[in-house]
Amino acid sequence: MSAGCVRWVLCHAVRSAWGGRPVCRTPASRLTPCSKQYNIIAASWRWSPFSTEANDTEQTPVPKKKKQDSRAHASVSSVGRKIPQRQIQVISEAGESLGTMHRADVIRIMDEEGLKLVLLSEHKDPPVYRLMSGKKIHEEQLKQREKKKAKSAPVQVKELTFSSGITSHDLTTKLKQVESWLEKKHHVKITLRGGRGQPAVKLDSTLEQMVEQMEILVGFVSPPKVIRDGHAAMCVLRPPSAKELSLKEKSKAAESQSAKATQTSPDGSTDSTEGSIQQ
Fold first, then answer.
1. Collapsing DSSP states into helix, strand and coil, what is residue 98?
2. How far is CA 97 from CA 91, 92, 105, 128, 254, in A?
3. How far is it, in rounded angstroms, from Cα 143 to Cα 76?
4. Per-residue pLDDT, 197
5. pLDDT, position 223
6. What are 109-123's pLDDT values in tens digits?
7. d(CA 210, CA 177)
């Protein structure tokens, strides 16, 4: 039997079985089970151990939470009447240690004297607290804000260059400019050049003498030193620190006291000698 005959027989048999309906098209409903099966297989393949996508998801590191420093929240503020510890070490408003006290006694002192309690050290045993007034707490908070601003603010460096042959009038003008920059909390870099045709001098010593002519107290980030093979000198100035200002005030007070002690009277004798004679 030829291939064409076999094909005709099969088509006739199928038409008879399906009541004469054509079978050349497959209904969409009969493809649904196959598509569902394909989707299930595809989904299982995507989440299989050999899938790259699944491995990438599993290997994604979980971000760790940063540990908060217990000292990060430390600030000058009142704890109120809620003292978590029973026994605490107390410092008076004047800075004297009152020893270890029960929190009930501390609250009684707070009520009687109108003071507030500030935590100083939580890690000591027992913790250290201090009695302070509301005004004192406010002042300490302002000081902490100023220190924080001073640390966070970037330092600007101003630069100034002039020759060693500068006139006294121009030098005074330059130094006034430097003083204004220092008062604004800037650093100032000063470069002193050697004049052309002038005899060789120690430019670092000359620069130091020029800085000493300033009317305000200054500090050195970098002291005067010779650069450019001796053809120039350079220094970096900064505003004075609180410690330097305090030492300067003490030095002035000591000088004034010594001047008063050695002050001469109109007849030429000193006050100290006159006082000893009178005694």
1. strand
2. 4, 6, 15, 10, 33
3. 10
4. 59
5. 92
6. 999 988 989 998 888
7. 13
Q: For 218-276, what is each residue's pLDDT tens digit?
A: 999 999 999 988 889 999 999 988 888 888 888 888 888 887 777 655 555 544 444 33
* Distance set, CA 262 to CA 24, 147, 275 (Å): 130, 42, 12
- CA distances (Å), 74 to each of 69, 117, 119, 148, 246, in order? 10, 14, 9, 13, 28
What whole-number distance in Å separates Cα of residue 162 and Cα of residue 143? 39
Neighbours of 129 (CB within 10 A): 23
pLDDT (tens digit per residue) in 170-206: 999 999 999 999 998 899 999 999 877 565 578 899 9
Host H or E run for residue 215: none
Q: Which residue(s) pair with 160 in the sheet? A: 190
Identity of the amino acid at 263: Q
E-assigned strand segments in the chain = 87-91, 97-102, 116-121, 128-132, 157-163, 187-193, 219-227, 232-238
Q: Which amino acid does the sequence have at 103?
A: R
Q: 189 CB contacts (<8 Å, ≥6 apart)?
A: 157, 158, 159, 160, 234, 235, 236, 237
Q: Which of 42, 46, 67, 66 is nearest to 55 (CA)?
A: 46
14-18, 65-69, 76-80, 115-119: least confident range: 65-69
Residue 235 phi, psi (nearest 5) = -150, 160
